[in-house]
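Write out the 3D structure for:
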Amino acid sequence: MDRKKPLYRSVNTRTHGVRHGGGEDYKSSRRRDDRVHAGAMGGRQRHGLDYTPLFKFLLSRVGDDWDAMHAEAIARLDRAEPIFWTVARSQAERKPFVCMGESAYYSGLFVDDTNRLQRVDPALSVEQMEPNCACCTHTFNGVPFTRKYRPSAD
């Protein structure tokens, strides 16, 4: 039986200089008098996972039955939450596009009345997207932006 590949991948977190935030280190706060010991340590942050394969999977399944597609995605993920980073759960959450990280944009998705996965704005294309800085390579659904950065005249 063939096991399908997971819809996420590991990214390098051990390279020198890679920082993932996380606030103040324990070593710099352990001697502070105002530190409150609240029992157990805080929740663990999840670093080192890239969900780009999930986003491409969802885009390739636009128009498919949501229940079957959702079940397949859940079976290939470590947790269900990343699905709803691009798929809106309600009418109020619908956006034409969503930004993952600093410069990776993906089409916003939703489940329609016939239980099919759909794009919020099917007419939106990479040609319409405009980068907000000159230093990054901006992408829309994995395709680099065609427009160049233009600073605002403000």
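DSSP finds three helices and nine strands in the chain.
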